Amino acid sequence: MGKTKHSGPIKLDTSWEPSLWASLMPMGLGKIKPHHIRDTMKVMYDNRDNLGYAYRILTQGVCDGCALGVSGLYDQTLTGPHLCTTRLNVLRLNTMPAMDTKWLEDVSAMQKLSSVELRKLGRIPFPLSRKPGENKFTRITWNEALNRIAHKIKGINPKQLAFFLTARGITNEVYYTAAKMARFLGTNNIDNASRICHSPSKTALKRTLGIGASSCNYQDWIGTDVLVFWGSVPANNQPVSTKYMYAAKKAGTKIILINPYKEPAMEKYWIPSVPDSALFGTKIVDDFYQVNIGGDIAFMNGVMKHWFEMEKEKPGSAINHAFVKEHANGIEQLREHIAKQSWEEIEKSSGLTRDRLKEFAVLLANSKSGVFVWSMGLTQHKFGTDNISQVANLAVLRGFIGRKHCGVMPIRGHSGVQGSGEMGADPFSLPGGDFEEKSWTRIEKLWGFPIPKWQGDIVGVTLENSLLPDGHERKTRLFYTSGGNFLETMPDPDFMRKCLESVELRVHQDIIFNTSTLVDAKEEVIVLPAMTRYEQPGGGTSTSTERMVYFSAEIEGPRIEEARSEWEIYVDLAARVHPEKKHLMHFGSAAEIRAEIAKANPNYDGIQHLSKRGDVFQWGGAWLCEAGSFPTEDGRANLIPIEIPNLHKPEGHFYVTTRRGKQFNSMIYSNKDPFNNADRYDVLINADDAKELRIAEGESIVVYNKYGTFQGRAKFEATKRGNVQVHWPEGNVLIPKGVYETYAGIPEYNTAVKIEKADTFHANKDLKYKERPIEDLEVNVG
């Protein structure tokens, strides 16, 4: 797919540019902003018992935070050292000692702790067991633990067995071994955290462009005419990226954010490793387009409608006809579809005026290059795949694909997730391909055993299946999760608790306890202590957002004596279930796994040569679809007409979406968002909306719908009118359960709600639900 090789890091221009300064006040004194020096000092204090090991992890390991791909302190984008607070925040997970075992004697005391408090207890020390009604965890041996799990697997239908892998520092070697083990045990019920975030990206890009990953590099941000972020706040979730944005601004790039909330982190940022930015901050975004939650499809249809109208007046003024004619299908069907869209419908759904949409359309039309970046603001909708297909439509119509300073980029929030699906660790894929006959045939030949041909379930359905009646072939009876906290990541936490409690045997393979670990199971909960990526014998690899495969060597340091490498646990378990054919599922080293990955996924040919610190290669070359060569059946991109979703919202309702604060996935590191000073229970609402409801700032309010009730405080922010935001996972009580995206199965994380003053709500709570038909509140965005 790619031909040109990545050129290596480029030198950052650090000359002072006062026109980009965010404030003349040195260090942003008095501003609401991250305090990088203070945070760094806190991290040093937290790791004071293992400072040497912490230093070696930071300088020798590949970042286990976001997926920008920093090896040691350096990456392939810019010269110079890079370090961010996200990486520093997760550092303690790798350096902390084992927990005090006295906690294991009183589960009721542990159940009173939050996940933040549980995390601070320390690492899981050894294999543990707890049966229903027991108020303690009992220490067991590895043999006892794995034999019990193997015995259970032998006694159930493979469709009643399911595996899940989270994103916490998991390596490609672990994902691959898990994917192979699941099929070896006869199940396709395997899923991972990446799919819950970006499966619509992969699905949409496959059907439109024939690819399942970013088509470009971070270097393409620097010098492109326009860099557009859709539903993504990298300054918060991938802080190192602000350095790339700084470099882009210095090169003349215009940066645009399309989001319901005018994110302060994207408006101004103090970059600690750039002298003038550290002192005076940097103005990042040139313009904000505040869309309704779920209004992006209408927004993009409006842009295309303007383009087609511009073409009537002056052919070639908006669409790259030469590129489309040579490399794309469906232009006429798309033109006809857009012509049927009324401006009234587009404006109402997007929340933006025709003139405002034209500004963006003209900006793109006048740009010779562009990079489009998005994250969960686009993917976590019932129509997430359609959202991403629209982004691809815009890129193809302008020819922003397959060349320097151009491309589409689903930016990843965790370091292990890009490789998860490419290793086959989800129900829709096998290593190097989709879950389809040609992939079965190829992989069965390599693995030497048959692959089950039935479609596996996504993790949400797997957990719901635990509630199926006894005897049902899909009833989940054994759920094996490597990391993950479903009480705090999935919609409707109370329902999720019932699902977890209904599983007969639940296995938690992890480095720490979380609230999900403490939920009862019908027969037994088994907890297995896992190694971190830096402890993995033989090292491990991870794949960055831009398809860079980095090798992270094993790092000398203290160890949890009984913790085991995750891939070794899988191999051992498989051998106990099917000892007669264990040779088919055997790996003696991490290097052996990499050698097999190179055969299983042709894109990863080269991973077998990674063996020492600093080793890296990029699969696919610098640009996928280079020179307009798309890996589709006919070699052409597909322009897909997308309908505007029904965003019906009854009078008096608001759209609500979930946001992230100072956190890493569900692991919260502060009760205050450093960018807007919001508390975890603050509801971000437009001041004019609040005024109409006679709500004062800081006043206690209730956000509610059919699914749940969220009690918080009003915080006035620059949100789009009619749209509010609550923090995730606290606000998950409002999100409907069992609602999944049509094509990729991602959970819906947006809905419609009503908002009232707390005293008014509580005074009339019973009356409300008696007088109002419950169906009136059953409103989902989508």
UniProtKB/TrEMBL annotation:
Keywords per UniProt: Iron, Iron-sulfur, Metal-binding
A single Gene Ontology CC term: membrane
Species this protein is from: Brevibacillus nitrificans
UniProt xrefs under PANTHER family: PROTEIN YDEP (PTHR43105:SF4), RESPIRATORY NITRATE REDUCTASE (PTHR43105)
Name this protein carries in UniProt: Formate dehydrogenase
Domain Molybdopterin dinucleotide-binding per the UniProt entry, residue ranges: 655-752
Cross-referenced SUPFAM superfamilies: ADC-like, Formate dehydrogenase/DMSO reductase, domains 1-3
Domain Molybdopterin oxidoreductase, chain residue ranges per copy: 123-575
Molecular-function annotations in GO: 4 iron, 4 sulfur cluster binding; formate dehydrogenase (NAD+) activity; molybdenum ion binding; molybdopterin cofactor binding
